[in-house]
User: Fold this.
Amino acid sequence: MDAIDLRAWHSAAAPKPQQKLAQYLYLFVAPSAAAGLGLFTSRPIRAGSSVLTVTDPDYLARAMSRREITRAGYSHADIFQVGSDLFIPPYGGPDDFTNHSCEPNCGLRVRPDGFSMVALYDIEANEELTYDYSTHQEHPDEDMACACGSRTCRGVVRSFSTLPAALRKRYLDLGIVADFAAAAVRHDAALALPF
Assistant:
């Protein structure tokens, strides 16, 4: 067996599992007032900062239609919409514990190779990290009851196109809306234009 060149191994471009996990040392899972378990931060995070970033060329490799993913045994609460009829199961990362809030402190910017979760405002240490599920939802069968407890709770989490126009605009301006959801709103607006 060949000896391992430790210097080469440490300087290799491919991140090691330890390096991937090290970026999340300030995140922890704990009981959430809103829903079971939630994702929390142990340190303050500045508005506009990346809370966590996942980069994986195979991020969308397990995407399935809603019919396929429910047949595979995943429920509504488990899946994440990444296309007009494409969903992925839990990824196995800390973000799987991120809950919805109608007044979120984070937003997601999804790419074909993963996503970044960004702070929408300054977040205190030990605060739960949340995002508005509606920013990545545009499917009539994905409505769910909301228990976020925020003062502006909508009661039901629905597709992005059902949000009030001012809230849709705010989320679009922040760049935290999935492309397929934003496209659905633009398509609906185009249909409403007089000819």
The chain has a mean pLDDT of 85. Helices lie at 6-11, 17-22, 66-71, 165-174, 179-192. The radius of gyration is 19 Å.
